[in-house]
Amino acid sequence: MRPARLSAALVTAALATTWAAGTAQAQPSPDHNCVFEGININQLLGIGERVIGPPPCREALAGERWVRVGPSWQTAGASERKVYPRGYVPQDPDPIDDFNAKFQGARYVLDRGTAQERTFVYGREVLRTGFVGADGRPFSIPASPPFEPLSIGGHTVVTFLRFSAEHCDGLGRNRDQNCVPAGELPWTPDTPLTVFPRSA
């Protein structure tokens, strides 16, 4: 449900792309800013730590704290004609406000299914709001608090989001593509990340 439509819509940039797995580099740059399609995500969101998000931002250096960013959720704009599935009535007439109001928090699971599995649960503070894409449509994007450094090697992180009630984006009638249900749902698959040793 939903992941196919969870595309990055970074502000004032033409970013209509799915957050898919990227090709790992030999080693990430010591300059840990995540630049995606010409947009510096660290600067956009005011994040000083390494960002784990869209490819190629899937690597970190030993000893670095890191933040899991995205994917974003985009809705119809306030002035657009809204299209909803049959029977759905939004609590707020502006779809992005409806999404933000129903958002309750996030759960991040590191190294799921391994002996090193750890879970972190947060509230509404992880949701960053107030962005507008190049197409004029608003979007919000979850960004975790900074995580402590991971050991050298391969890891995974999966994001779950929680909602108080069903939300639909106003862009279509397909509940699988245009809505999120009440309760908790997986927002991402297990996303791989690699931690490299620092060069001498």
Reconstruct the topology from this structure.
Blueprint: E1 7-8, E2 17-18, E3 35-36, E4 39-40, H1 41-45, E5 50-52, E6 59-61, E7 66-68, E8 73-74, H2 95-102, E9 103-110, E10 118-122, E11 127-132, E12 138-142, E13 153-163, E14 167-168, H3 175-178, E15 179-180, E16 183-186, E17 191-196
Task: Provide structural commentary.
- The chain has helices at 41-45, 95-102, 175-178, and strands spanning 7-8, 17-18, 35-36, 39-40, 50-52, 59-61, 66-68, 73-74, 103-110, 118-122, 127-132, 138-142, 153-163, 167-168, 179-180, 183-186, 191-196.
- By secondary structure, it is mostly beta strands.
- It has one domain (3-196).
- The strands form six sheets. Strands 6, 9, 10, 13, 16 and 17 form a six-stranded mixed β-sheet that branches. The protein has a three-stranded antiparallel β-sheet with strand order 8-12-11, with helices on one face. Strands 1-2 form a two-stranded antiparallel ribbon.
Provide the descriptors you would attach to this structure in a database record:
200 residues, mainly beta, globular, disordered N terminus, 6-stranded mixed beta sheet, 8% helix
Spans of 5+ residues with little confidence (pLDDT < 50)? 1-26
Q: How many domains, as an integer?
A: 1
Rg of Cα set:
17 Å
Query: How confident is the prediction overall: mean pLDDT?
Result: 86
Shape: globular
- The helix fraction, in percent, is under 10%
Percentage of residues in DSSP E strands: 25-35%
Structural class: mainly beta
Number of helices: 3
The largest sheet is: 6 strands, mixed
How many angstroms does the end-to-end distance come to? 45 Å
Q: Helix and strand succession?
A: EEEEHEEEEHEEEEEEHEEE
Q: Please count the beta strands (DSSP E, at least 2 residues each).
A: 17
